[in-house]
Amino acid sequence: MLSKGLKRKREEEEEKESLAVDALWLDPGHAAVAQAPPAVASSSLFDLSVLKLHHSLQQSEPDLRHLVLVVNTLRRIQASMAPAAALPPVPSPPVESSMADNLLASSDAALSASMASLLEDLSHIEGLSQAPQPLADEGPPGRSIGGAAPSLGALDLLGPATGCLLDDGLEGLFEDIDTSMYDNELWAPASEGLKPGPEDGPGKEEAPELDEAELDYLMDVLVGTQALERPPGPGR
Amino acid sequence: MVLQPSERHYRDWNHRRLGPWCSPTGSPAPLSCETGCGEGSWILVCRLLVPTQVSLLSMEEDIDTRKINNSFLRDHSYATEADIISTVEFNHTGELLATGDKGGRVVIFQREQESKNQIHRRGEYNVYSTFQSHEPEFDYLKSLEIEEKINKIRWLPQQNAAYFLLSTNDKTVKLWKVSERDKRPEGYNLKDEEGRLRDPATITTLRVPVLRPMDLMVEATPRRVFANAHTYHINSISVNSDYETYMSADDLRINLWNFEITNQSFNIVDIKPANMEELTEVITAAEFHPHHCNTFVYSSSKGTIRLCDMRASALCDRHTKFFEEPEDPSNRSFFSEIISSISDVKFSHSGRYIMTRDYLTVKVWDLNMENRPIETYQVHDYLRSKLCSLYENDCIFDKFECVWNGSDSVIMTGSYNNFFRMFDRNTKRDVTLEASRENSKPRAILKPRKVCVGGKRRKDEISVDSLDFSKKILHTAWHPSENIIAVAATNNLYIFQDKVN
Q: Which of B92, B141, B284, B488 can pair with B475 through a Cys bridge, CB separation 3.0 to 4.6 Å?
């Protein structure tokens, strides 16, 4: 339920392998570059960057500097791999690792969208903690594509108090809350998922009106509004 | 606690000649006599190690500080990740040296007083105080752990008998007061010597309690906690020259605080885009000007420095000056941006220059010239051809700090393999030294280190491929007025001093 912040693990230095890659693409004037096709070297670097991005997004609280630098580097590589296209969809170079397969399968839009949606949600979190703000999460449609797997994983870790407030309905939001102190014999239990009513809540005679009033009240409580705009309901 | 025989003599081998500086021709040559560099050879004064047990020791017994220092060396095998030093800072007089570690502890060392009998002990530092500054916390809203690692310590100038410092982790800044107590009151009327209350009926006379000397006790108390102002991770704190305010900087925002007010702070820089999709740059370091309380600088992950004047507007989103060096087209690569990311920015003591550290270089900028630095020093240019492997193992993201000496004539920064580098701005000479336990043998003469790039490797050189990238010197400090430096290598703190005849 409650997750620990994942520490970024330092990857083992694979010197021999990487030295070859270094020579391949880094120095344009180097003899090795002339021998090897640049696309191959770029693609391995692309894979590496995508893996790093994936790993970074999986963190509960990604290191923003690391994330931004990796994303910018990825954009550079993408730009060099498909310079002709105006809006380059990610060209799929031969991929070795299966993990990269899933990520490369998605389009460029989805990749940036998944990162963007994560950053959006980070900002939504901030909005929740600072002031009442609209919590509707308007993630780009590309979010549901496979490339969103890492960001969704991160969203799960962020917990229920995120942009999915309105998506799942209120029931999911209150699963964890102990409602025993709010149980009131005046309440007619309409359904399992119905919510902790206010202590001096309105009467229950009229169910449809109660639902609306109850939801409004609960929304007010959630966003921390001090004054109840609605007076106690009928019967009190 | 039993001291092993070897530790009793650890102070005998304090004076390690690290060798003279090398002139560009390679032959050893003494530096010119100037206030910045002294005679040019560096001596290991002491190596201090901070095991986890030390705080328990100091509470249990009346131990003199020499014993505590000895136990530092013995407990090498107990060192844990929590003991990794994450920040080092001298205070304004150089009398105190503070370290913060990953476990949230602060350890303060005090310079040994000079005495005529023991001149050779000048420059040694002993433990003065140890306290737990930050504890691991949990953010319930986001279900995230908040690391207790101390990111930065900054001292306040001393204004009375007590010492004050700011320490910060990722989210919370704390103001600590460190004070001495060497007297205690005796002769209470209502309590006896053990502290038990007396029966008032037995009291027939009154007396005035007197202060009697007691063994020195150093207490650290948190005086202020500045919390809940940073959504992102704090990377810098800087005390203003007005001594009333300070700033804290995270990845996207900089806040201005008054020391007296903990529930409010002013946001003075905010680079968070309205749409986080557009985020391409973060703040990496920030510092106030040493004399002008309205001026500060902050650096970015794109290798730029912005100088801001708080008099211009409340929100300093528009800079007064913008420092950026154009990219060298011959060195362009996919990693150009990452290696240009500035990891540290420091004003010179004079306030005329700023120094920045990026992955491969240290640069000195004149505040009056924004289009390029006036000096660039290569720290470890041999890594330029290894950037891909360093990207792969994330070493390319390491954040090295840099420091000025007291007279702004020498700058110092760390590297890998426990190497650290010094650059003399006047003579243009540089030296590479090593802070390592293996090389700190009694009476051995250590030489300046050299990395061999290619071709034939000379006898004392180290090849690039043999460098240990897990041994990195990220944090160093230079005494404000003397040639004493503190170098943090993992959980070891090395104190070096130049040999003055």
A: B488
